[in-house]
Amino acid sequence: MQFLRDADIDPSPLTAKRVAILGFGNQGRAQSLNLHDSGIDVVVGLRGGSGSANEAEGSGLKVALVEDAVASAQVVMILAPDEIHGPLYREIEPHLREGAALGFSHGLSVRFGFVEPRADLDVFLLAPKGPGTALRSLYRDGKGMIALWAVHQDASGNAKPLALAYGRAIGCGRAGLIASSFAEEAEADLFNEQAVVWGGVPELLIAGFDTLVEGGVSPEVAYLECVGELHLIAELIEARGIAGMREVISNTAELGGLLGGKRIINDEIRQRMTKILAEVRAGRFAEELRREEADGYPRLEHARSDARGSLLQRTFERLGGKT
Ligand SMILES: NC(=O)c1ccc[n+]([C@@H]2O[C@H](COP(=O)([O-])OP(=O)(O)OC[C@H]3O[C@@H](n4cnc5c(N)ncnc54)[C@H](OP(=O)(O)O)[C@@H]3O)[C@@H](O)[C@H]2O)c1
């Protein structure tokens, strides 16, 4: 595995280049500010009337309409929501300079064909492995966030050094850049979102909470047990790995976890995980995402409203929003 840090990376491919960041949301805000602080010429491209323009300008960044930002830059980073990359790319394509570089922080829209980049463009991936808020705070603390990089199209012959220089400029070279591909990053990320951290874990917490409450335990105690302890194990795994975490918890918790964990995550669950991975690879989820956006996000709105009114959320609020 290639694992590159600042000392291995030449920053010069970005020297004297302008980077247009499209979107000033979670990643757009963090990446544009980190680039700016690294001395890169950045312009934030926003839609007319965007509510983010004042904040971006107030942070000392140049702001322009999307098409003007694109036309002025040698490197264009698409940091708008994945499901609108297709229409956004079609809107900016006529404004992209001949031989420009197009960057992404998630492989989804290229891997699943939302975007089919023009042949003269370099196309790279620089995917920080965490939210923009942490990317920014780590940078300000002199640290960085691990990121994956990849090249989809190398029209100039310089796409790789450019991708690495970009990763260095947003601070990820302080932690390490790992070589991947658009397909690997997109598939692994979607799999994790659905089956593990963002899909499986919350549903496991909810199922545990419901089981205790149905068994006569008060919602407060059920919440503290099943949800409130999550940050403790997350911090231990972050600091010591899974084996190290098991060594510092009580023998009671360790034996309980050993016997109970494999009854919950059994062969049937592993087979369902394999099925989810196959469906992700077949583009089933990408199609769902495209349809959800086209329909105006009805399933997401409905699920958000249900979750806000749930007993679990009301218990969280009764506990003062803290555990
Ligand atoms: N969120 C994360 O932690 C994270 C982590 C790693 C990678 N990524 C990837 O980073 C990319 C950006 O994700 P994100 O979560 O940062 O997105 P986000 O916060 O939802 O992006 C919002 C920004 O996109 C702009 N935008 C929306 N539609 C637009 C359009 N049609 N034209 C121009 N701008 C538009 C919004 O403009 P307005 O200000 O006008 O509303 C806003 O500034 C995605 O590819 C995502 O997969 C995200």
Note down, in words, how this protein is organized.
The chain is an alpha/beta fold. The chain is built from 16 helices and 9 strands. It has helices spanning 26-37, 53-58, 66-72, 85-92, 108-111, 132-140, 159-169, 182-195, 200-214, 219-226, 230-248, 251-264, 267-281, 284-294, 298-308, 311-318; strands at 3-4, 18-22, 41-46, 62-65, 75-78, 101-104, 122-128, 147-153, 177-179. Strands 1-9-8-7-6-5-2-3-4 form a 9-stranded mixed beta sheet. Strand 5 (75-78), helix 4 (85-92) and strand 6 form a beta-alpha-beta unit. Helix 1 (26-37) runs parallel beside helix 6 (132-140) and helix 8 (182-195) crosses helix 13 (267-281). The radius of gyration is 22 Å and the shape is globular. The model has no long low-confidence stretch (mean pLDDT 97). NADP nicotinamide-adenine-dinucleotide phosphate (NAP) is lined by residues 22-28, 46-47, 50-52, 66, 79-82, 84, 88, 105-106, 127-128, 131-132.
